[in-house]
Amino acid sequence: MIPTHRSPLRRIVRIACLLVVAWLALSCVVVFAFRFIPPWTSAMMMERRVEAWVTGEHDFTLRHRWVPWGRISPQVGIAMVAGEDQKFPYHHGFDVDAIQDAIDAADEGKRLRGASTISQQVAKNLFLWNGRSFVRKGLEAWFTVLIETLWPKQRILEVYMNTVELGNGVYGVGAAADAFYRGTPDRLDATQSARLAAVLPNPRRFRVDAPSAYVQRRTAWIARQVVQLGGPAYLSRPAPVSGRVR
Residue range 82-87: average pLDDT? Predict the structure, then answer.
């Protein structure tokens, strides 16, 4: 009998499939582990360090300190939800209505609007890089599904509050409370929390410690939204039957 040999193409395809399966399995393990282990850094923090090194920002200092949920003022979480993703307690990682609104706005030639949920922002901040490519968006969707499947909502918001950039090189509410208010995150009041949320998603342009007129208006708007949502209790309220938030 003439021995049969697998073609090089078949071998490459087989190896590629094995690598993809291995990567998918590894990503599941890592995301599951971060349900219990505080992330010591994030992809966005590492990217910012590299950016500072490449651009010669010799005075750049990255500040980050993990703070557990119980040591963060309840006002911080609800302020960020009110400002960034009011349907956070009820969606499964993607705000379909916000995505459709963004598509409609783009079709009408209006300014491009963001439609990322807090879960999507956690996926990007923790595992990915800045950019708008289809590859990055696809990976963001994958990690968002994993996060929503493997983590409770409280953990998602806890990681978000600890990894989001709130100033140039200031990551997380622990570092932000110290840098901007000379205090601890458990003592942040409603106005201070709204101010932190007001600089998102562009904390290098908008500053907590030197708020522009826009930041002041947005702070007031977020504070009103927090009251209308019902305060921190909103985050533990049962989902409405319709699945939509009024």
Answer: 95
